[in-house]
Design brief:
Length: about 220
């Protein structure tokens, strides 16, 4: 995948570098979780085992991760009908790209091990630093995407809804609602529970229907 990002006619070296950066970050935060959870002293006691809602997706992902590499040719043939064709980059082949990607992945693992297993004080001191604390809050706030979404989309829509709350379109819907209420009141008055009125209504309707069939 990383090599294809650089070898594709629509890709390039920049996409290849961005993919490597993603590999580094993924390996770092994934093994950070592993080292924090399974290494060192227990910080939170285990109260219950995960249920099927968590076990089934994890088993499925684990199985796909194990066998995914063995169906590479079939998978590439399947998605190749939608993805652009790749071309070989003379300066770097797929083997070299895969080797570099594996090295970057291992570097991320070692970096996580160094910070969270070998010298956990580094992470603690980084959080104590004002810049490190700010980055920690920024990352744990989903890169401030909720904040941006609220101010770029939610609040402008709420503001437009507030300033247009009395426009002509709303009046049209108010008139339609009033018409529905008026029709409901007129029809509900016919439901008075008097059987004779019901029979008279049925007879009148039959007369009107018969007259319409004869004269029209």
């Amino acid at each position: 995948i990383i090599w294809s990002a650089g070898a594709s006619p629509l890709g390039g070296t920049a996409f290849w570098a961005v993919g490597l950066t993603g590999v580094l970050l993924t390996s770092f935060y994934t093994f950070r979780v592993i080292f924090v959870v399974f290494f060192g002293e227990a910080r939170t006691p285990v109260t219950r085992r995960p249920g099927l809602a968590m076990t089934i997706p994890l088993v499925t992902l684990a199985a796909l991760s194990v066998v995914g590499g063995y169906v590479e040719k079939w998978y590439l043939a399947f998605v190749g009908r939608a993805l652009p064709a790749t071309r070989t980059v003379p300066a770097m082949g797929e083997t070299i790209s895969s080797t570099i990607t594996a090295a970057v992945f291992i570097a991320g693992v070692l970096f996580a091990w160094l910070i969270y297993v070998r010298q956990p004080s580094v992470a603690q001191s980084a959080l104590a630093n004002p810049l490190g604390g700010a980055l920690d809050r920024f990352w744990f706030s989903d890169w401030a995407m909720d904040w941006l979404y609220d101010r770029l989309l939610v609040r402008p829509v709420e503001w437009l809804a507030w300033i247009t709350r009395g426009d002509a379109l709303d009046s049209i819907y108010d008139w339609l609602a009033g018409l529905v209420v008026l029709c409901w009141r007129g029809l509900s008055s016919t439901e008075n529970g008097r059987v004779r009125w019901y029979a008279a209504g049925i007879a009148a309707g039959a007369v009107v229907f018969t007259a319409a069939a004869i004269f029209l």
